Each structure stands twice: as C-alpha cells, then as structure tokens.
C-alpha cells in the first residue's frame, strides 16, 4: 500500500514539475509557478539516492530563489526555501557546511513567519529548525543519513528484543518523522498550489 502511495506521489509531482516547466516557458516571471516547481522538486528529491537528492534540492532552491526575485515577500516561497535548506543540510555530513544551510533556513523561515505571523505551520517549521543542528549531529553520528532519506518512519518489527534496541528504534523513528514532516509539508504546498492552478476559472459574472 505504501509503495502504491509513493508511486502515486511520484507521478503527481513529476506531472507538476513538467507542467511548471511548460508554464515557465510561457511566463518566466510567474512567482507562484516557480514556487510550485521548486516544491515539486523538493518532494521528488526524497525518492532519490543522496547525491541525486542533493542535486534535485539545489535545483528546487534555484527555482524558489528565482521566485523571490519576482516577489521578495512571498511567504510560502520563503517557507519552502527554508525547508529546502533544512533538507539539504540534513544530507550534508560536514557539520560546518550543514550549519551554513541551517543558518540560511532559519533566516528564510523567520521571514516567512514575519510575513504571515498567524500561520501555525510556519511557526512550527521555525521551531523544528531551531533543533535541527542537534538532530543533524545525532543522525550523522549514527550513520543514519547513509540510509534512505527517511521521508517515512521505519516500519516492521524491531530486530532487537532488548528494551535498549526498542528505545533506539523509537528514537530513530522520531528523527525520521521530523525530517519526513519537513519534506511532506513542502509537498503539501506544492500539491495545493498545483491543484489550484488546475481549477477551472470561475464563471463570468452575469451582466446586470
């Protein structure tokens, strides 16, 4: 079932990416489209191996930065960009390099909150980002980043029967949940934005 859901998501966001690419050719200054494009790339990145994921995230970042050149205070773009840098940092083993990305993420997420202070998701993202460097150190300390990107918590019974092994699995699941939440949240924005773009225009107002 999960594999089918993943396949459906890949198809959806690949279609969103291609649609955004076509739209960009017609109107390169459409900030909404650039944001959808960047969000779709971030969502697709989770299904790649680490090197390809990083390339796709960087591509997504470039699209989001391009959107900000058109609309510097677009809060959903700022938020996506913050999550993109957070995701990239988690895939970067070197702590100094990762810190640069975490710092950029914090700046963009704070700007998103400043532009839309009532948005609970933005505030939650900023809160999670503040804990991200510590989580990054733990993940790379245990070599977890060399496994899957962790868009979903680990499934199946624990191979260890000891309480310690069970606790470690729960800790690992929590780490995957947090990272997965970041990617999923970005995906939701891309999904909603794409769905809105596919809606038929409202009927014309009847003449009075």
From TrEMBL:
<dbReference type="GO" id="GO:0045040">
    <property type="term" value="P:protein insertion into mitochondrial outer membrane"/>
</dbReference>
<dbReference type="Pfam" id="PF06552">
    <property type="entry name" value="TOM20_plant"/>
</dbReference>
<feature type="region of interest" description="Disordered">
    <location>
        <begin position="146"/>
        <end position="170"/>
    </location>
</feature>
<keyword id="KW-0813">Transport</keyword>
<keyword id="KW-0472">Membrane</keyword>
<protein>
    <recommendedName>
        <fullName>Mitochondrial import receptor subunit TOM20</fullName>
    </recommendedName>
</protein>
<comment type="similarity">
    <text>Belongs to the Tom20 family.</text>
</comment>
<keyword id="KW-0812">Transmembrane</keyword>
<feature type="compositionally biased region" description="Low complexity">
    <location>
        <begin position="150"/>
        <end position="164"/>
    </location>
</feature>
<dbReference type="GO" id="GO:0015031">
    <property type="term" value="P:protein transport"/>
</dbReference>
<keyword id="KW-1133">Transmembrane helix</keyword>
<keyword id="KW-0496">Mitochondrion</keyword>
<comment type="function">
    <text>Central component of the receptor complex responsible for the recognition and translocation of cytosolically synthesized mitochondrial preproteins. Together with TOM22 functions as the transit peptide receptor at the surface of the mitochondrion outer membrane and facilitates the movement of preproteins into the translocation pore.</text>
</comment>
<dbReference type="GO" id="GO:0005742">
    <property type="term" value="C:mitochondrial outer membrane translocase complex"/>
</dbReference>
<keyword id="KW-0653">Protein transport</keyword>
<dbReference type="InterPro" id="IPR011990">
    <property type="entry name" value="TPR-like_helical_dom_sf"/>
</dbReference>
<dbReference type="InterPro" id="IPR010547">
    <property type="entry name" value="TOM20_imprt_rcpt"/>
</dbReference>
<keyword id="KW-1000">Mitochondrion outer membrane</keyword>
<feature type="transmembrane region" description="Helical">
    <location>
        <begin position="174"/>
        <end position="194"/>
    </location>
</feature>
């Amino acid at each position: 079932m999960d594999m089918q859901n993943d396949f459906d998501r890949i198809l959806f966001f690949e279609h969103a990416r291609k649609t955004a690419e076509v739209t960009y050719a017609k109107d390169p200054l459409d900030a909404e489209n650039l944001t959808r494009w960047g969000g779709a790339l971030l969502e697709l990145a989770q299904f790649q191996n680490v090197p390809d994921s990083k390339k796709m995230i960087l591509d997504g970042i470039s699209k989001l930065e391009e959107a900000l050149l058109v609309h510097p205070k677009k809060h959903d773009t700022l938020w996506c960009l913050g999550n993109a840098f957070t995701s990239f940092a988690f895939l970067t083993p070197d702590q100094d390099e990762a810190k640069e990305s975490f710092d950029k993420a914090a700046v963009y997420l704070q700007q998103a909150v400043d532009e839309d202070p009532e948005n609970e998701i933005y505030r939650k993202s900023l809160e999670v980002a503040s804990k991200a460097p510590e989580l990054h150190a733990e993940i790379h300390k245990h070599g977890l980043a060399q496994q899957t990107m962790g868009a979903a918590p680990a499934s199946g019974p624990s191979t260890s029967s000891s309480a310690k092994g069970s606790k470690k699995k729960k800790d690992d699941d929590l780490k995957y949940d947090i990272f997965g939440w970041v990617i999923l949240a970005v995906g939701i924005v891309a999904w909603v934005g794409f769905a809105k773009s596919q809606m038929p225009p409202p009927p014309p107002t009847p003449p009075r």
